[in-house]
Amino acid sequence: MTLPLNPEYDLSCELIDGDDSEFWLPEIEHICQLHDISFDNMKKINGWANGIFDLDGQYIVKVVPPNWASQGERELASLTLLAGSTLPVAIPKLIADGEVNGWLYVIMDKLPGTNLHEIWTDLSEENQCLIVKQVAEFANRLHAIPVPEDSSLCLDWPAFLKEQKENCVEKRQKQGLTGPLLDDILNFVEKIDYQPVYNRPCLVHTDLHPGNLLAEKIDGQWHLSGVIDFGDAFIGNDRYFEYATSAILMGLGNKVVNRALFDAYQFEIEDKKQFAQHLMALSLLRHTGEMAYVLQQVPGCDELSDWQSVADRFFAL
Q1: Which residues contact 137 (CB under 8 A, 6 or more apart)?
Q2: Is the pTM of the predicted complex or chain greater than 0.85?
Q3: Residue 283: helix, strand or coil by DSSP?
Q4: Torsion angle of alpha carbons 169, 175, 179, 182, nearest 10°?
Q5: 91-139 pLDDT, tens digit each
Q6: Considering the domain 9-109 in this protein, what is its CATH number?
Q7: With the CA atoms of 93, 154, 251 and 52 taken in that order, what torsion angle do they form, in degrees rounded to the nearest 10?
Q8: What is the location of CATH 3.90.1200.10 in the chain?
Q9: Are 54 and 24 in contact (CB under 8 A)?
Q10: Where in the chain is the domain with CATH 3.30.200.20?
Q11: Is the pLDDT of residue 17 over 90?
C-alpha cells in the first residue's frame, strides 16, 4: 500500500486532484479485495474534495484523506441512518466501508442519471421549477425522518453558530472575498436574528445544489432521480439552512424558480425581508462553500457592496 500515513495537507490535495492511475489502481484493487468486490474498469472522477472512483458503472468508491476525515464519517453516518428510509428519490446504498493507513473509504452503489450541474442552466424555466419542487419534496421528507439524539451527526446548534460567527470574516477572506462585502459581514450578521424557528432537530444534507443532484429525462422533461454526497450533512435545528443552498445555486436570482422552491417547502413566513436576512446570515456562517465563488454564479452580484443587497438578489421572491 502506498497511501501515505498522516499526509501533509498539500500532499493530500495533490493526490486527490491528480489523475495518476498507476498510483490509485492498486489502492482501489486492495480496498475492493477486502470486500470481495471485483471490477474490470476504474475511472477517477475529478473535481471533488475526495477521491471518487467509478468501477464498471456499478460501484462508487469514495476515499477520504485523514486531513478531512469528518466528511467520510458524515457520509457513512448519514447513509447508515437513512438505510431503509422511504425517500422520493434514490440515495446511494452503502455497501462497505473501512480504513487504510488512516484514509477512510466508503463503497456505494452508483445511481443512474445525469449530474444536474451539466445541464441546469440549459433547462427551461418550467423544467427548473419542476425540479426545485422535487428537491423541496426530498428535503421535506428528509427532515421528517426521526433522528437519534446521540448521533455523531448532531451539532450543538447555538455553539455551532457562535463558532462560525467568530471565524467567518477570516474564513471568507482566506477564500478570496475582498472589499466592501468582506467589511460588511459582521455589520450585517450582528443585526440579524438568525436563531432557528424550528425546535425539532433534523438531518440536513446542506448541499442540495446541481452538483449533488442527478436527473433523468422522462417524456421530454428532466426529473430529479437521485441525491448524492452526504459528506457535509449534520443534524441541526434550522431547515432554512437547507433551503438557502438550493435557493442560491438553483434559483440563481430567478424569482420564478425561487418562488417555486419556496412554495414547495411550505414555509410560513410573515416578513419576506426578514426571511431573506435570516437566509443570508446562515449562508455567511455556513461551514462549507466559498462565498466569493457563489457570488460569481448569481447574475447581477458583481457590483453589490452590502449583504442586504446580496440577500435581495439571492432570495428574491
Answers
A1: 88, 264
A2: yes
A3: helix
A4: -20
A5: 999 999 999 999 999 999 999 999 999 999 999 999 999 999 999 999 9
A6: 3.30.200.20
A7: -40
A8: 114-314
A9: no
A10: 9-109
A11: no
- Spatial separation of the C-alpha atoms in residues 85 and 91, rounded to whole Å: 10
Distance of CA 37 to the CA centre of its chain: 28
CATH superfamily, domain at 114-314: Aminoglycoside phosphotransferase (APH), C-terminal lobe (3.90.1200.10)
Q: What angle do CA 86, 88, 92 make, to 5 degrees?
A: 75
The C-alpha cell that represents 299 in the structure block: 447574475
49: closest CA among 58, 39, 62?
Answer: 62
Q: In the structure grid, which three cell numbers stand for residue 134, read together?
A: 422535487
The pair phi, psi for residue 90, each rounded to 5°, is -75, 150
More confident residue, 6 or 204: 204
Buried b (16+ CB within 10 A) or exposed e, 231-251: bbbbbbbbbbbbbbbbbbbbb
